[in-house]
Design brief:
Elements: H1 9-22, H2 28-35, H3 38-41, E1 43-46, E2 50-54, E3 64-68, H4 80-101, E4 105-109, E5 126-131, H5 138-143, H6 152-192
Antiparallel strand pairs: 1-2, 2-3, 3-5, 4-5
Helix pairs in contact: 4-6
């Protein structure tokens, strides 16, 4: 039998055991954004209605979770604004992963309900999993084990600059929308003034 050495995992295992004893019933998609400890929680991006974080139980390196702040379990409960932001942020997250890690493809999906595979079924979230040709080996087939070759901290550092650019673009777009609204109001006022 061959040994698979991953000594960095011990810290994760011990932390997970400790967390089990102190874990509350909080939803991670509600509690993590409130903590405001983005690096510790692996939050890469915060938008107006949604945020992006690394999955700490990844299927592959760079496995992202995109979630609304609003605690809902299905798509029908989201209004058009939040749904649009969710999909736009998913699109931008795929773009960031393409730029950062150059995968050969992606799995993008939503698991609605336990039967569909949702690990956290009460808070809607989208999975984005980068894929590379040949990224499935004999390990998951024979041993039900996935080998993740990169530590989450390293993945976070690689992706963060790409999401910082997304944050800056979001702030710029918000300022532009504000400028457009102000200009529109001024135009309406001018038209309303008797001449």
């Amino acid at each position: 039998m061959k040994q698979l050495w991953a000594p960095w995992r011990m810290g994760f295992i011990l932390q997970n055991q400790q967390n089990k004893s102190t874990r509350s019933a909080d939803c991670i998609f509600c509690s993590k954004p409130k903590e405001r400890q983005d690096r510790k929680s692996y939050v890469l991006y915060r938008g107006e209605h949604v945020f992006v974080m690394l999955n700490i139980y990844p299927y592959n390196n760079g496995h992202l979770l995109v979630s609304p702040y609003l605690h809902v379990k299905n798509l029908a409960q989201l209004d058009r604004t939040i749904l649009t932001d969710l999909m736009h942020t998913t699109q931008q997250s795929v773009n960031a992963l393409e730029a950062a890690v150059s995968p050969d493809g992606f799995n993008v999906g939503i698991n609605l309900g336990k039967a569909a595979g949702a690990g956290i079924e009460d808070h809607l979230h989208i999975h984005i999993v980068p894929r590379w040709a040949g990224d499935t080996s004999y390990m998951p087939v024979l041993s039900e084990v996935r080998v993740i070759p990169e530590h989450l901290n390293a993945t976070y550092e690689i992706l963060l600059p790409h999401f910082m650019a997304l944050r800056a673009a979001g702030r710029s777009a918000a300022r532009q929308r504000g400028t457009e609204k102000t200009a529109s109001k001024k135009t309406k006022r001018r038209k309303a003034k008797p001449g």
